[in-house]
Amino acid sequence: MVLTARYNLIKRLQTTFRRGEPFDYSQLAQLGISSALAHHYLKSGWLTRLGRGVFAFPNDTLRQEDCLKFLSHRVAGFHVGGKTALAWRGIHHNVPVREVLCLWGDNKGGLPVWFRRRFPSRYTVRNPFSSKLEKDFGLQPLPEVFDGVPVSVPERALLEMLSEVGIHEGIEEARNIMEGAGSLRPEVLATLLKNCRRVKVVRLCVNWSQELNLPWASMARKAANGQSGHSRWTGRLRDGTILVLKP
Fold it and tell me: What's the average model confidence in pLDDT over 209-238?
């Protein structure tokens, strides 16, 4: 009877989770699989351990989308943002041979090792927006993936990318990407700019949009009025470059 019950649980496990999908102790518990039984399945070769409390089927190639979705349910505020979100939504300049995922979240612990080993990625908790902005404002799955990982809409992704200028994003590349962002929704961008707490981000958005003659440039300046002060902003970038932004 014990062997039959364990076999039935294995069959249930194999039909519940797809190949290439990670799962954890809490999900196993919902199937009636205790931590002791999970350990037995590990020793027997039915499961393999990815990290602490995280498992997959042996010899699986993990799928990026499933791993991102798994993390989105476990990391507060987790989403695909910045340059990656822009590219996924069709706004990009140069597409690298192997993309480094730009991921955002509220947890300061970073991404698990098992994920970083499989998917080149960068994770940041430097949220450029005020706490007054709704947590999920501008975060939606891609249209073709209804229940997928949250991805920043172009307006939010642009400001996230600008917050990384001089840190992880080069000035020229960011400006070239922004040049392709002519179809942003003014009302969405205005809400984000009014709730942006980074002077550098607001100034770059306003100044570059005017220099690039983007359709929403005048709206951006109006929305940013009073958000970034009235004096010049000066900052030293990671490469030593001095960036000066006028009001």
Answer: 81
